[in-house]
Predict the structure.
Amino acid sequence: MEGLGIFRLKSGDMPEEAVILLVLLFQNQRSDHMLGTLVANPKEKCDTDLPLPPGMLGGRFRSLGHAIRGLGTLVQTQPNAKWHLVATLLVTISALLLGVARMEACFLVVAIAMVWVAEAFNTALEFLCDRVSTRHHPLIRKSKDIAAGGVLISAVGAACIGFLVLFPYLKAFLSP
C-alpha cells in the first residue's frame, strides 16, 4: 500500500463512530511515504503537502510544519487556548523572576505541557467530530464532554502544582 495517498469514503459507507476510530488509528500509523486522510467527499482536495527542503530531512521538516500549523490553529481558534497561553507566560515569567529551583521548574514545565496536550487533543477531537457529523449525536456530545473534562482535570492539576511551587517563593519575595 506504499504510495497510496488518500482513502476515500462516501457518506453511509460505515457508521460515524467507525470513521472516527479509523482516522485516529490511521493518524498514528502515518509515515512520509503513506499519507492517509479520510475524505467524506471524493472531489475534496487534501491539503497535506508542504514544500520540502532538499535532502533526507525533508519529511521531518514537513512534520514540523504540520505541528506548527496545528499549534497556530489551536491558539487562533480556541478561546481557552489563549487563556492557557497567558497562564503559561505568567507562570514562566514568575518562575524566572523568583528564581525557582530547577527540579521545581521541571514540575511546572510538565504541568504546562500536560494542559497544552490535553487542549490539543480536545480541539482535535472536536474538529474531527464536527467533520464527521454536523448532526447532534449523543455519542459525539459525550466524546466532546469527556475530552473537555480531561482539559479541566489537567488545568486544575497544573494550577495546584503552580500554587505549590510558586507560593513559597512569592511569600518569601513579598515578606520584609
Notes: The longest strand covers residues 7-8. The helical segments are 16-28, 58-77, 79-98, 102-132, 138-174.
